[in-house]
Amino acid sequence: MASLPVTDGGRILTDAWDYKGRPAIRSQTGGWTSASTILVVELNERLTSLGIAVNLVTYMTGTMHLGNAVAANTVTNFLGTSFILCLLGGFIADTFLGSCVPSSDSCIPASGIQLAVLYLALYMTALGTGGLKSSVSGFGSDQFDESNPWEKNRMMKFFNYFFFLISLGSLVAVTVLVYVQDNLGRRWGYGICATSILIGLLVFLSGTRRYRFKKLVGSPLTQIFSVVVVAWRNRRLPLPSEAALLYDVGEQAKLDGRQGETKQPLPHTKQFRFLDRAAIKRGEASPPSRWRLNTLTDVEEVKMVVRMLPIWATTIMFWTVYAQMTTFSVSQATTMDRRVAGSFEIPPGSLTVFFVLSILLTVPFYDRLVVPVFRHFTGNSQGLTPLQRIGVGLVLSAMAMVAAALTEIKRQRVATTVVDPHGPVPMSVFWLIPQFLLVGSGEAFAYIGQLDFFLRECPSGMKTMSTGLFLSTLSLGFFLSSALVTIVDRVTGHGGHRSWLADDLNHGRLYDFYWLLAVLSVLNLIVYLVSARWYVYRERGESPADDGNLGVELRDAETSHHG
């Protein structure tokens, strides 16, 4: 077989280093040998984090004997912290770094010490998850050289395997691991989680000598902060009459003496002109600090991010609805008849398997049927635009809350016929499937639509930050769920009235909480439609090769959520 030509970079890579800081040698670093260890890490992390989160609400209510509202908030706060730490982890990585014993059968709430240990363990897990999610997919792509066609092809296959192993880890977590936790004991389930992540760590460390490391380029968050700070400092200065009088990349290149190494200039826009003050020149004769002066192109990139914020804000509600599937929907399942095939009983947390199934069904359905139809009528090669896909996801989430409310009304009516108040409601748990399927299908539309939007519409140098901005909608959605649960529980439980979110769901009004979420979802959808109509897609001049690179970036970012 012929060897690779010298023009592909030869033996030495110019933009990557080995673990000792030396220029990386292609044959001795990176590639599938390194990537396979990262794949194992991601499989084990997905198994561990989802294995904890998906069944946590039943642990809080059944083992720690906490109320439904407290248990739901514990889960959503844990998930919200995990995703918000992705943004922090990405900033740190880009800028600087390249269990409880089951209690007795008596329903005594956990002590302060027990809760302290539990929360410490949960938020240490969230911290680790945030750091891993923000870096693992990018580090995996670093093991392949995009300038080399042979390695670039391997990188695209890497993300296919990445997504497959994430799905595999999710399936094992919501089926096998949940079954172990509910039938063999929590200590066995959490012990498997601890062992799994330890194995992943050892496998990851075993590949240290072969990893490739890329040079740090700094965080785009710094650029945003600097533009805002400098614009505020210059708020009293008059703006020049012409944009050509503002500081831009051409003048920056002359001062730096680095012709050809700067960003491509962006055309000036008249929106958010206050930010233009960050580019007002003060007669600098040497390269200025970015905390004193920014280029107009830097300012325009920040404007792009500002224009995306209304879309960002109106997608948070979807993840608030999503949060109910891992909290109150699981609590509903614990009260219902979960028997199948005679005596086998489905663990409540395992119902989330319908998330995975609905996604696996929706994605090929969209690609094979929806895209060709809409491509024929609209001429859009993608079928639906990113904003249209998000809109479909928001509609499905509102429908899911309607279905959840109707199912809960029926469940409570059936519960009134039960003689044994401590026994299961004689109603099949499969009545809950529609709300799981609707939210899962909604995720397939909203999640991928958000990825497409945030990656395509953000500035070229802010892909990582834009992915973090997207992940923050998940985090804020979970936190909003916690806030709504707290408010509803306090307001409806005030004055001696029984809360909508009573510890005994048969005596609560969970369906009213679902109706509230349905109404909020519809109102949010209206605001979203107005924002989407106002938004104008930025002009894109990518070549076909650029579109190919974007496809890789989409796969890269897509693993961040599932990973």
UniProtKB/TrEMBL annotation:
Keywords: Membrane, Transmembrane, Transmembrane helix. Its main location: membrane. Belongs to the major facilitator superfamily. Proton-dependent oligopeptide transporter (POT/PTR) (TC 2.A.17) family. One of its GO terms (cellular component) is membrane. It comes from Spirodela intermedia (Intermediate duckweed). It comes from the Eukaryota. The lineage of its organism: Eukaryota, Viridiplantae, Streptophyta, Embryophyta, Tracheophyta. One of its GO terms (molecular function) is transmembrane transporter activity. This is Uncharacterized protein. Residues 543-563 are annotated as: Disordered. The keyword Coiled coil does not apply. It is found in: Membrane. Residues 553-563 have a biased composition (Basic and acidic residues).
